[in-house]
Amino acid sequence: MARILIIEDEKDIAGALEYNFKKEKHETSVAYDGIQGLKLAQGYSPSLIILDIMLPGMDGLEICRKIKSNPKTEGIPIIILTAKSEEVDKIVGLELGADDYITKPFSMKELLARVKTILRRSEKKQIAAPDILKFDDLEIDSEKHQVSVLGKAVDLTAKEFQLLKYLAENKERVFSRDRLLDSVWGINVAIETRTVDVHVRRLREKLGKASRHIKTLRGVGYKFNV
């Protein structure tokens, strides 16, 4: 059983989500505005958040940014709901650290399938890697959501951090761009594989000398070298 927080101002949709999650034996909590939603996210300790973008008080993208920039909540998976079809909203949400998105109107069956997949993936992450990964001059602290090179903190976005952490946790393994999109950005994400290249380029610029750990294999993908 998971604890699912629903942040949605349309009561019909929130009610339908709550009903279906309870049928799946999940515990639920609902907020109808952004400010209350953020408070619940910080105090309710949800296993997953269903987050609408268009909300009174505080929009969903700002809530996502605050959750993913807080070490205490950054590990909570987020699925964004939006009535907008513009690609920019989806990309911004994913860039801020959201795990998936779904556009209204949506299939409840599809949403439940995505929730199940993300919860399963989240459980595996909790079992897996240590809180701090150290590689000579590079240190990745998952609990503090912090990366440092030679003891100096490096300012990364949520997605840059997730990408670096994923590569480091799977050091010496080669990953294609499609595999990285699936594992870091989430399933069913309709964005181009060049997004991975852009994030790798930014990571290398920010990591400086420690960027040597990220290797490109032409025509194949990327890997983390120790």
How would you explain this protein's 3D organization?
- The protein is an alpha/beta fold and 226 residues long.
- It folds into 2 domains: 3-127, Response regulator (Rossmann fold, 3-Layer(aba) Sandwich); 132-224, Arc Repressor Mutant, subunit A.
- Helix content is 42%, strand content 21%.
- The strands form 3 sheets. A 5-stranded parallel beta sheet has the order 2-1-3-4-5, with helices on both faces. A 4-stranded antiparallel beta sheet has the order 6-7-8-9, with helices on one face. Strands 10-11 form a two-stranded antiparallel ribbon.
- The chain is elongated, with a radius of gyration of 18 Å.
Mean pLDDT: 88
List how many beta strands DSSP finds: 11
CATH architecture of the largest domain, please? Answer: 3-Layer(aba) Sandwich
CATH class of the largest domain: Alpha Beta
Q: Which band does the percent of strand residues land in? A: 15-25%
Look at the structure and name the CATH superfamily of the largest domain: Response regulator
Q: Give the count of structural domains.
A: 2
Order of helices and strands: EHEHEHEHEHEEEEHHHEE
Radius of gyration from the CA trace?
18 Å
Uncertain segments:
none
Q: Name the shape in a single word.
A: elongated
Describe the largest sheet: 5 strands, parallel
Fraction of residues in H or I helices: 40-55%
Give the helix tally. Answer: 8
**Structure class:** alpha/beta
**Largest sheet, spatial ordering of strands:** 2-1-3-4-5
User: For the terminal residues, how far apart are their CA atoms?
Assistant: 38 Å
| CATH fold node name of the largest domain | Rossmann fold
InterPro entries: CheY-like_superfamily, OmpR/PhoB-type_DNA-bd, Sig_transdc_resp-reg_C-effctor, Sig_transdc_resp-reg_receiver, WalR-like, WH-like_DNA-bd_sf
Domain Response regulatory: 3-119
Protein name: Two-component system OmpR family alkaline phosphatase synthesis response regulator PhoP
Modified residues (4-aspartylphosphate): 52
